[in-house]
C-alpha cells in the first residue's frame, strides 16, 4: 500500500509539471494547430458510430451556432469559405447544430460534394461557431489555428493567447523557408460588438512590449537569454486584448529601437524582408517586422509598433500601409522598453483605416478623440511642406493627392516653409537661431542620455553579474549612439528638453493649433513626405552608423508631440538592378493635425477611401497585389 501511495504521489507531482502545448496536423493539405484548451465536451451520443471512440486520431468537425436550420447550411458554408481562411469544407464531414429548432440528426451532401453527418445538440453550452477538432475518446473540442510560414522574417516568436490572460509559445512548425510559423484562429469564433470592437482582430506586437509569460529580446540575443519571461502584459497591449484582439506573435525590431540598416547593422537577428518592389528593399526601422508583415500577410490585420523618431512612419512609408505616431502621452508605456520617454509613443500599422480607428480608440481610450459617424467637420487649411517637384513621378502623385484633399475640404493648398516661419515669427529671444542649429542635437541627446540610464546601465550590470563581469554584444548603431551620449555632459539632456519645449509651445500655438470648434478639432492639416518611392536596397554596405544629428520635417511631430500619420497614396515604377525589370514602389504622404486630434486622421482616411481618393493597399509585391519575389 505504501508503494502504491508513493507511486500515486509521484505521478501526481509530475502531472502538475506538465503543460499541454497543443498538437499540429494537416487536413486536406493545410497545416493546422490544435489549441491545448478545451472549448467544450461533445456528448458521445452525438458522435457517429463510424467514428471509433478509442481512435487516437482527431476528427474535423464544424460547430454551427444557435437557431441555424439544416437547409441554411449550404449558404452559410459558402459565406464562411469567403470570409475565413481557417475553415474549409473538409471540416463539414461532421456538423453539429446547436439549439436548432426542429433539428433532426441526418446524413446529407452539401454543395462541396462532401457527405456530412449532421447532429443536433439541443442542450448545448455556448460554443463559438466554426471549425474544431474532436478528440473522440474524451469528446473534447479544440479550437483550430491555421499555420502560416513567416517567409518575410518579420516575427521573433509565435504566440498562443491563453484564456487566462497569459501567453505561451505556439509550438508548431509548417513547411517553409522560415524558422518561425505563426498560427491564427478562425475568424468565425469572434463577433465584434460595442464592448469588443477588435474581436478576432489578429495582431503582431513589436518585441519591446511585455507579454505575460513571454520572453523578450528587445532586438538583442543576450537580452533574450538573460531575462525571464515577463510577469505582466503592458497596459497598452492589455487594452487591445480587453477589446477582443488576438495576439499572434512578437515581431522583430532594430536593436533597442535604434535606427539600423539591414546589411551590417542587424547583427543579433536578420532584418525582415520588405515585400514591395523586387523584394530586396530595406524595411526601414525600428518597427521593421511590423511594416514588413502587414505588407506581406493578408492573414494579419494589425501590427503594434512604437515611434520615437520615425519608427512607425518609416516602415509604413516603405511598406505602403497606414501608420500613426500618436499625440505623445495618450497611453501608458509601462512595461515597454524605452528609447526616450520624452518622445516614445505607441501606434499601429495596418491596411484598413476602419481597423486603424478602432484600434486607436481601444488603446488610447478616453484620451482618443473619436469623430462621429455622421458627416465630419474637417480643417479648412491644407499646408504642404517639402514636396518634390510636380514634374517628377512621385511629386505628381503627392501634389495630386494634396489638390484632391483640398477639393474635398473645399479649400486651397498652401505651401509652407517652417524654417522661414520660425525666422519671421518664432519666439523673439531665439528666432535668429535657425531650427537646424537649435534642434541639431536635441533628438540625439534625448535618446542617448535617457536610454543609457534606463536600459544600457541596468542591462550591463545584470549581464556582468550573470557572466563573471563580462559585457554583452551590442549592435553597431546603438553602440555608436551610446558611446557618444556617454561622452557628453549630463547638462546636455536638460538643454535638449528645454529646446524641445520651446519648439513644442511655438508650433502648437502658431502652426497647428486646435480649432475653437471641437468637432473640427484641428485648425489645419500639414502634409509632407518621407516615402518618395525610391529604391533603398538592403544589400548595400553603408558607412558605419553615426549619431542621428540634424533637423528634418519628420522631427516636427517628435518635438511638438502632435500626431503624425502615414497614408499610402500611390506607386511609382523604378528599374530594379536586381530583377532587371521595372518594379512598383510605394509613395506615401505624412499627415499632421493638432495635438489631441488623432481620431481625425483615420476618419478622414475612411472618407477618402469611400470617395476613391485613397485605396486600401493589398499585400504582395505592390500595393495592388501580386506575387512576392524571392
UniProtKB/TrEMBL annotation:
Residues of the signal sequence? 1-15
Domain (Amidase) spans 193-364
User: Record keywords: NAD included?
Assistant: no
Pfam families linked to this entry: Amidase (PF01425), DUF8016 (PF26053)
Q: Which UniProt keywords apply?
A: Signal
Protein known as = Uncharacterized protein
* Membrane-traversing stretches: none
Source organism per UniProt? Gibberella nygamai
Q: What is the organism lineage in this UniProt record?
A: Eukaryota, Fungi, Dikarya, Ascomycota, Pezizomycotina
- Scytalone dehydratase-like protein Arp1 N-terminal domain: residues covered: 51-148
Q: Which residues form a coiled coil?
A: none
Q: Which domain of life is it from?
A: Eukaryota
Query: Mind telling me which SUPFAM superfamilies this protein's record contains?
Result: Amidase signature (AS) enzymes
| InterPro entries to which the protein is assigned, alphabetical | Amidase_dom, Arp1_N, AS_sf
